[in-house]
Specification:
Layout (H helix, E strand, L loop, with lengths): L6 H6 L47 H25 L11 H31 L6
Helix pairs in contact: 2-3
The structure holds zinc ion.
Zinc ion binds next to loops.
Amino acid sequence: MAKEKSAVVAMLTHSCPVCRKTSIYKNPAVYTYIDLGVMHAECPECKTNLMPETGFYFGAAYVSWALTVALWVSVLVALKVLDAIGLLEFGFLTHPITFLTSGGVATILVFPYLFRVSRSIWAHLFIRVKAI
Ligand SMILES: [Zn+2]
């Protein structure tokens, strides 16, 4: 018998919040820009309704915002570390273009994952097992 995924692993791998077996997205590949946000209406495995109401995933924008802020803070810390060990000359006020360019590139690179994981986190927070 396969070991069940933990809630955190299920969240990060976009698995169903109830059964944690299948992806909530029709195309499980993250870097697909064509059907990036196309989700199953219900889980193919356990039939959990993944679209409980119209506009349910609008709230995932708050999760996305928090993750994007965390990403930009991580970029800032990485640049400061590179400056501290002497690999890059960086100061937040003296080299703003370096920070904006690095943050922009990092955001573009991880956008598909952040978009999907934000919806996944939102689903895991608010979709629960139905009471029988
Ligand atoms: Zn399921």
